[in-house]
Amino acid sequence: RVNVKCEDLQLSYGNVVVLDGVTLDIAPGEFFALLGPSGSGKSTLLRVIAGFLQHQKGRLLIDGRELRDEPAWARRVGMVFQNYALWPHLSVRENVAFGLVERRLSRKEIDARVSEVLEQVELGGLAHRSPHQLSGGQQQRVALARTLVTQPQVLLLDEPLSNLDRSLRIQMRQELLKLQRRLGITTIFVTHDQSEAMTSADRIAVLDKGVVQQIGTPIALYDYP
Length: 225
Ligand code: ADP
Ligand code: ADP
Known about the structure:
Elements: E1 4-13, E2 16-26, E3 31-35, H1 42-50, E4 57-62, E5 65-66, E6 77-80, H2 92-98, H3 107-120, H4 136-148, E7 154-158, H5 166-183, E8 186-191, H6 194-200, E9 203-208, E10 211-216, H7 218-222
Parallel strand pairs: 3-8, 3-9, 6-7, 7-8
Antiparallel strand pairs: 1-2, 1-4, 4-5, 9-10
Helix pairs in contact: 2-4, 3-4
């Protein structure tokens, strides 16, 4: 279990400031929500933590170690994208195994890890299907499995449930939370849905225009004057 620290992170595109001094201290094992309107910088912050984007000022520390130039693959940070980004021509099992390509593992070890993760997300019986033969919720689980199989220390979720209908979203949210608790992975998820953040997160940071406006537990934020 690791903590994630952002100290005064700044990022601009030209003279457009997208992250304007973001400071956060996310506890080991925490289920942490980034809440804010579209364009507030949530995805940008996730991408900086993942290593897909480089901040210009401030510091990012994971487990007490500062990260600057480490590429995404070297970080033990896993990100699940909003659109799932599954390979249509690969089976469920192959999609999940794809996360382990270039990690110098034996065939046997890859098979064992993939099977374990497929069980964790309850996809064991669907391993040989193609993504297009799956429901939205099942595709979402494949995307999650593909990330979990790399055994990340930090899990980043970019609006992971936004493509699902309401009842499935509620069900998947509970499953996700249960799995997160069981694995104890420090998790940061982005949402623009206040009730989603309020009902699942340990703590919430409210972002607006690249600035953290409020931060606290759901109860503390609910009582905010
Ligand atoms: P356990 O007590 O078995 O570790 P919990 O589900 O109670 O499992 O908590 C898991 C972890 O999540 C804790 O170790 C803690 O670091 C973190 N956590 C839980 N609730 C909060 C909270 N409200 N604020 C910050 N961190 C929390
Ligand atoms: P959110 O995830 O909260 O919707 P984003 O992090 O995606 O917000 O975007 C924050 C701001 O950064 C937006 O105003 C967006 O237009 C701007 N932005 C994002 N990517 C780029 C880019 N590649 N070039 C210029 N501006 C960008």
